[in-house]
Design a protein that fits this description.
single chain; about 150 residues; mainly alpha; 2 domains; membrane; DUF3021 family protein; transmembrane helix; DUF3021; transmembrane
Protein backbone atom coordinates (compact mmCIF):
# COMPACT_ATOMS: atom_id res chain seq x y z
CA UNK A 1 0.00 0.00 0.00
CA UNK A 2 2.85 2.33 0.88
CA UNK A 3 4.51 1.52 -2.45
CA UNK A 4 1.30 2.24 -4.39
CA UNK A 5 0.93 5.58 -2.62
CA UNK A 6 4.54 6.39 -3.52
CA UNK A 7 3.82 5.60 -7.19
CA UNK A 8 0.67 7.74 -7.13
CA UNK A 9 2.41 10.72 -5.52
CA UNK A 10 5.21 10.50 -8.07
CA UNK A 11 2.63 10.23 -10.87
CA UNK A 12 0.73 13.26 -9.58
CA UNK A 13 3.93 15.30 -9.37
CA UNK A 14 5.15 14.29 -12.82
CA UNK A 15 1.68 14.73 -14.34
CA UNK A 16 1.16 18.26 -13.01
CA UNK A 17 4.71 19.33 -13.82
CA UNK A 18 4.58 17.93 -17.36
CA UNK A 19 1.10 19.34 -18.02
CA UNK A 20 2.08 22.79 -16.80
CA UNK A 21 5.34 22.88 -18.76
CA UNK A 22 3.61 21.75 -21.97
CA UNK A 23 0.82 24.31 -21.56
CA UNK A 24 3.37 27.03 -20.81
CA UNK A 25 5.34 26.03 -23.90
CA UNK A 26 2.21 26.35 -26.05
CA UNK A 27 1.45 29.73 -24.46
CA UNK A 28 4.90 30.92 -25.58
CA UNK A 29 4.57 29.35 -29.05
CA UNK A 30 1.21 31.07 -29.62
CA UNK A 31 2.51 34.26 -27.98
CA UNK A 32 -0.47 34.43 -25.61
CA UNK A 33 -0.85 37.60 -23.60
CA UNK A 34 -2.66 35.67 -20.88
CA UNK A 35 -1.82 32.16 -19.76
CA UNK A 36 -4.40 29.51 -20.63
CA UNK A 37 -3.81 25.93 -19.48
CA UNK A 38 -5.56 24.39 -22.47
CA UNK A 39 -7.33 24.97 -25.77
CA UNK A 40 -10.01 27.68 -26.16
CA UNK A 41 -12.80 25.07 -26.28
CA UNK A 42 -11.70 23.82 -22.85
CA UNK A 43 -11.34 27.35 -21.49
CA UNK A 44 -14.86 28.27 -22.62
CA UNK A 45 -16.30 25.93 -19.97
CA UNK A 46 -14.93 28.06 -17.12
CA UNK A 47 -15.71 31.51 -15.77
CA UNK A 48 -12.06 32.24 -15.00
CA UNK A 49 -8.63 31.08 -16.03
CA UNK A 50 -7.97 30.25 -12.37
CA UNK A 51 -10.80 27.69 -12.39
CA UNK A 52 -9.60 26.28 -15.71
CA UNK A 53 -6.06 26.00 -14.36
CA UNK A 54 -7.24 24.21 -11.20
CA UNK A 55 -9.26 21.69 -13.24
CA UNK A 56 -6.32 21.28 -15.64
CA UNK A 57 -4.00 20.54 -12.72
CA UNK A 58 -6.45 17.90 -11.47
CA UNK A 59 -6.63 16.32 -14.95
CA UNK A 60 -2.83 16.41 -15.29
CA UNK A 61 -2.54 14.74 -11.87
CA UNK A 62 -4.96 12.01 -12.97
CA UNK A 63 -2.97 11.49 -16.18
CA UNK A 64 0.16 11.11 -14.06
CA UNK A 65 -1.66 8.55 -11.89
CA UNK A 66 -2.72 6.53 -14.95
CA UNK A 67 0.86 6.27 -16.19
CA UNK A 68 2.25 5.61 -12.70
CA UNK A 69 -0.22 2.80 -12.02
CA UNK A 70 0.23 1.31 -15.49
CA UNK A 71 3.99 1.01 -14.92
CA UNK A 72 3.26 -1.52 -12.18
CA UNK A 73 2.36 -4.01 -14.93
CA UNK A 74 6.08 -4.33 -15.65
CA UNK A 75 6.75 -5.40 -12.07
CA UNK A 76 4.63 -8.56 -12.21
CA UNK A 77 7.46 -11.08 -12.60
CA UNK A 78 5.22 -14.05 -13.37
CA UNK A 79 3.88 -12.32 -16.52
CA UNK A 80 5.66 -12.50 -19.84
CA UNK A 81 6.96 -9.26 -21.32
CA UNK A 82 4.21 -9.57 -23.94
CA UNK A 83 1.47 -9.74 -21.30
CA UNK A 84 3.07 -6.89 -19.33
CA UNK A 85 3.16 -4.74 -22.47
CA UNK A 86 -0.44 -5.52 -23.45
CA UNK A 87 -1.73 -4.79 -19.93
CA UNK A 88 0.32 -1.58 -19.77
CA UNK A 89 -0.93 -0.48 -23.19
CA UNK A 90 -4.57 -1.16 -22.29
CA UNK A 91 -4.36 0.65 -18.94
CA UNK A 92 -2.70 3.69 -20.49
CA UNK A 93 -5.01 3.85 -23.51
CA UNK A 94 -8.25 3.27 -21.58
CA UNK A 95 -7.18 5.60 -18.75
CA UNK A 96 -5.55 8.34 -20.82
CA UNK A 97 -8.07 8.66 -23.67
CA UNK A 98 -11.05 9.92 -21.61
CA UNK A 99 -8.75 12.31 -19.75
CA UNK A 100 -7.42 13.68 -23.05
CA UNK A 101 -11.02 14.24 -24.16
CA UNK A 102 -11.85 15.99 -20.87
CA UNK A 103 -8.75 18.16 -21.33
CA UNK A 104 -10.24 19.32 -24.64
CA UNK A 105 -7.27 18.10 -26.66
CA UNK A 106 -9.56 16.82 -29.42
CA UNK A 107 -13.30 16.79 -30.09
CA UNK A 108 -15.24 13.64 -29.35
CA UNK A 109 -16.11 12.22 -32.75
CA UNK A 110 -15.08 9.17 -34.74
CA UNK A 111 -12.47 10.91 -36.90
CA UNK A 112 -10.60 12.59 -34.03
CA UNK A 113 -10.82 9.56 -31.76
CA UNK A 114 -9.38 7.43 -34.58
CA UNK A 115 -6.66 10.00 -35.25
CA UNK A 116 -5.79 10.21 -31.54
CA UNK A 117 -5.74 6.40 -31.31
CA UNK A 118 -3.41 6.13 -34.30
CA UNK A 119 -1.01 8.70 -32.84
CA UNK A 120 -1.19 6.98 -29.44
CA UNK A 121 -0.32 3.60 -30.97
CA UNK A 122 2.56 5.06 -33.02
CA UNK A 123 4.04 6.92 -30.04
CA UNK A 124 3.57 3.88 -27.79
CA UNK A 125 5.28 1.65 -30.36
CA UNK A 126 8.25 4.04 -30.72
CA UNK A 127 8.70 4.24 -26.94
CA UNK A 128 8.29 0.45 -26.61
CA UNK A 129 10.79 -0.25 -29.40
CA UNK A 130 13.32 2.15 -27.88
CA UNK A 131 12.89 0.59 -24.42
CA UNK A 132 13.20 -2.96 -25.75
CA UNK A 133 16.29 -2.10 -27.80
CA UNK A 134 17.91 -0.44 -24.78
CA UNK A 135 17.06 -3.41 -22.54
CA UNK A 136 18.42 -5.85 -25.12
CA UNK A 137 21.74 -3.95 -25.27
CA UNK A 138 21.96 -3.82 -21.47
CA UNK A 139 21.32 -7.57 -21.18
CA UNK A 140 23.95 -8.32 -23.83
CA UNK A 141 26.48 -6.07 -22.08
CA UNK A 142 25.72 -7.71 -18.73
CA UNK A 143 26.04 -11.19 -20.24
CA UNK A 144 29.33 -10.23 -21.88
CA UNK A 145 30.70 -9.13 -18.48
CA UNK A 146 29.62 -12.44 -16.97
CA UNK A 147 31.49 -14.38 -19.65
CA UNK A 148 34.69 -12.32 -19.38
Amino acid sequence: MKRLLSYLLRGITIGITTGFLISLTFAFIYQSKNYAPSAPTFMSHFSSSTSATAVSALLWALIGCVFAISSLAFEVDRWSITKQTIVHFLITYVGFTPLAILCGWFPLNFFWLSFFSLIFVIVYFIIWLTSMTTARHEVRAFNAKLHD
